[in-house]
């Protein structure tokens, strides 16, 4: 399989970064928070797949929901006005639980195309408002908003959009709130004030009559789990309102219990104009994304369109099998107690990881709920990142794997954690203990020692 993978299966990020040498890591099965590799070794999945298997693996009731839907009606297009029960019930259930008046749900296939869909909805909105000149978008450095062509423009990773000749001049970035490495220091109020000032300056620079929307993750995930200071999201939301700029919350990672409540916007006390979700929506069992639109957004587009069709949709939009799975996953979060367990285990995870803060290699421990990160540094006082040439991502991922722990290791020496919400206390403690072991082994790594000297 490893040979066949190398020969035929393209994983752009890995294949073209020289990871073929080691070959793909194969999993064969999973249950709860445990995954089993091809050799039969069990590992704790501290990352819930790719921040998505929030409910954990192997829920028979999810399998049953999918099977039952497949038997009864495996497909009904959500593209036109044909429908099926499951996506309608799901849309109603989500609208009921969403913050404020986010009452209109568009189902996509995952996170990237949910984000892409919002870009089109935002553009439709401004056309309908008679302000088609509002075609400029702002997002945040270190942000990730997917890898479809439009969404990749909002993503702040240059490798996702430079060098391919795709025009991105409609896209603007402001600095991240990244508290640990912020030029304005770590005072929450100073960081928020600086970000508000920068957002205002950016809007003024582009011209307020040209700015369509601002995109932000309530907690930046792929950027390294960067948690904004309290009040930051709310202040940015207010700034957008002051300028009439639409505020889009990208909750693809933070949604569905990852940070405690069903949506992180609830913790922030804000209602965005649009919100994107995916991952935990179906807990990774099948692909699906959901875009939430506030009443005024939906109604403006509908009125503006009049009798004309709004040309947007996918063959698999509102897929009944995905919707049936999402309904069962939602039941597990609520009636099955997963949200509650996630909140308890999230507090335990944060406390456990905080206990590693004194380790000589640990510069920062941060997170909220079941979303956390440890940032490794080679000099604690100077916050020196691990040198890029040490390839910390692969090194740390492999070392954790050997300890029976799956984590996300970012290139700059950051470990990311997003365990399934079903984790037991023993599993959370094992995640922390195995991390300690990885850190100790890394401290003995001659190249790391040299970087620290
Ligand atoms: N938005 C955010 C905040 C994400 O973290 C991701 C994926 N990590 C996406 C969008 C894209 O989602 P997908 O990979 O499902 O297309």
UniProtKB/TrEMBL annotation:
CDD domains: OAT_like (cd00610). The keyword Transferase applies. Its cofactor is pyridoxal 5'-phosphate. Pfam families: Aminotran_3. Keywords: Aminotransferase, Pyridoxal phosphate, Transferase. One of its GO terms (molecular function) is transaminase activity. PANTHER family: AMINOTRANSFERASE, AMINOTRANSFERASE CLASS-III. Belongs to the class-III pyridoxal-phosphate-dependent aminotransferase family. This is Aspartate aminotransferase family protein.
């Amino acid at each position: 399989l490893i040979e066949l993978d190398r020969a035929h299966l393209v994983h752009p990020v890995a294949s073209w970064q020289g990871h073929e040498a080691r070959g793909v890591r194969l999993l064969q099965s999973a249950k709860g928070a445990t995954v089993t590799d091809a050799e039969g070794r069990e590992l704790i999945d501290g990352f819930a797949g790719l921040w998505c298997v929030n409910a954990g693996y192997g829920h028979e009731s999810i399998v049953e929901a999918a099977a039952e839907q497949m038997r009864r009606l495996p497909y009904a297009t959500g593209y036109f006005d044909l429908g099926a029960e499951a996506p309608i019930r799901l849309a109603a259930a989500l609208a009921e639980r969403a913050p404020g008046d986010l009452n209109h749900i568009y189902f996509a296939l995952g996170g990237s195309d949910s984000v892409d869909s919002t870009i089109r909805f935002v553009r439709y909105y401004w056309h309908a408002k008679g302000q088609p000149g509002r075609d400029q978008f702002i997002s945040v450095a270190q942000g990730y908003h997917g890898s479809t062509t439009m969404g990749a423009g909002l993503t702040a990773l240059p490798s996702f959009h430079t060098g391919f000749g795709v025009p991105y001049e409609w896209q603007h970035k402001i600095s991240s709130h990244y508290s640990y490495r912020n030029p304005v220091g770590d005072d929450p109020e100073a960081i928020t004030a600086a970000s508000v000032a920068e957002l205002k300056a950016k809007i003024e620079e582009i011209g307020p009559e040209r700015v369509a929307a601002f995109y932000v993750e309530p907690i930046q995930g792929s950027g390294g789990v960067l948690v904004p200071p309290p009040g930051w999201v709310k202040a940015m939301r207010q700034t957008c309102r002051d300028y009439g700029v639409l505020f889009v919350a990208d909750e693809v990672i933070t949604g569905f219990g990852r940070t405690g409540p069903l949506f992180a916007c609830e913790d922030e006390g804000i209602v965005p104009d649009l919100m994107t979700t995916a991952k935990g929506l179906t807990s990774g069992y099948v692909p699906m994304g959901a875009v939430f639109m506030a009443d005024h957004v939906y109604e403006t587009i509908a009125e503006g369109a009049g009798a004309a069709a709004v040309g947007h949709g996918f063959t698999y939009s509102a897929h009944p099998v995905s919707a049936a799975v999402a309904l069962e996953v939602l039941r597990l979060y609520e009636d099955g107690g997963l949200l509650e367990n996630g909140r308890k285990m999230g507090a335990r995870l944060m406390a456990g990881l905080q206990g590693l803060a004194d380790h000589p290699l640990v510069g920062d421990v941060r997170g909220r709920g079941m979303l956390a990160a440890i940032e490794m540094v080679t000099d604690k006082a100077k916050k020196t990142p691990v040198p890029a040439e040490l390839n910390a991502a692969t090194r740390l991922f492999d070392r954790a794997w050997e300890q029976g722990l799956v984590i996300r290791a970012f290139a700059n020496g950051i470990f990311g954690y997003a365990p399934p919400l079903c984790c037991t206390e023993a599993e959370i403690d094992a995640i922390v203990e195995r991390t300690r072991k990885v850190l100790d082994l890394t401290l003995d790594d001659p190249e790391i020692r040299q970087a620290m000297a």
